[in-house]
Amino acid sequence: MKPLNVITLGLAIAGFTVGAANAAVIYTLQPDSGPPLALKGTADSSVTASSFNFDEGGMDGGGDRYFYTLAGNAALRTGISETISFSSTTHEFDLTSITWSYYLFSSGGRVDVNVSVNGTDIGTQSTVTTNAFDQILTWDASSVATASTYNLVFSIDEVDPGGAGRATFFELQDQNSTGLVINGDITAIPEPSSAALLGLGGLALILRRRK
């Protein structure tokens, strides 16, 4: 009878299967009509703790938009900072992209949004289209190291090349159930007992080959 591979046996005993990471929406932040009217954070089931601190804007009466009041021909509004954090004790995350669904009411100005993830700057995206719903800002997050804990900082600045401050408000919107979305790959972390068993199986295989 053909000998059973030691590593295969270890995997079977541990009930552990090595597989590809699963692509998923890890976290979303969306305006919610409630009651009460508020932003709502929703995490994948693999996330064991999450929080957000978006307190520089306010909800509109319909509950489908979270908006920032901008200059409107006054001094430009800059230095807005919002955060999202999430972590897992059972999984690791490999971020792929972040999207922000926006509406910008403006007669010439724009808004720049910079994103930092675990201290890594992944770039600044600028609004292009004004006065139209469901516009999207997208960041490539693939340069961020795989981790089980993430802290994201969104830095928002009003910009007007003419210096007039012509934007009135900038929104995180939920017209098509998008809001702010964090995408990535999710991989289960082996339990210590499973990892130890795999290590013993590999050692046994090495010793066997040396005989």
Written overview of the protein:
- The protein has 211 residues and is mostly beta strands.
- The chain has two helices and 13 strands.
- Strands 1, 2, 4, 5, 7, 10, 12 and 13 form an eight-stranded antiparallel beta sheet that branches.
- Strand 1 (22-32) and strand 2 (38-43) form a beta hairpin.
- Helix 1 (6-14) packs antiparallel against helix 2.
- It is globular, with a radius of gyration of 23 Å.
- The model is unreliable at 1-19 (pLDDT under 50).
Which secondary structure elements does this structure contain, and how are they paired or packed?
Elements: H1 6-14, E1 22-32, E2 38-43, E3 49-53, E4 58-59, E5 65-69, E6 80-87, E7 91-106, E8 110-117, E9 120-126, E10 135-140, E11 149-159, E12 167-173, E13 180-188, H2 192-210
List the keywords:
eight-stranded antiparallel beta sheet, five-stranded antiparallel beta sheet, disordered N terminus, mainly beta, 211 residues
Bin the strand percentage: over 45%
How are helices and strands ordered from N to C?
HEEEEEEEEEEEEEH
Please tally the helical runs, counting DSSP H or I stretches of 4 or more residues. Answer: 2
Helical content class: 10-25%
For the sheet with most strands, the description reads: 8 strands, antiparallel
Uncertain segments are 1-19
Number of strands: 13
- The termini sit apart by 19 Å
Average per-residue pLDDT, rounded, comes to 84
Shape field: globular
What's a concise summary of this model?
The chain is mainly beta.
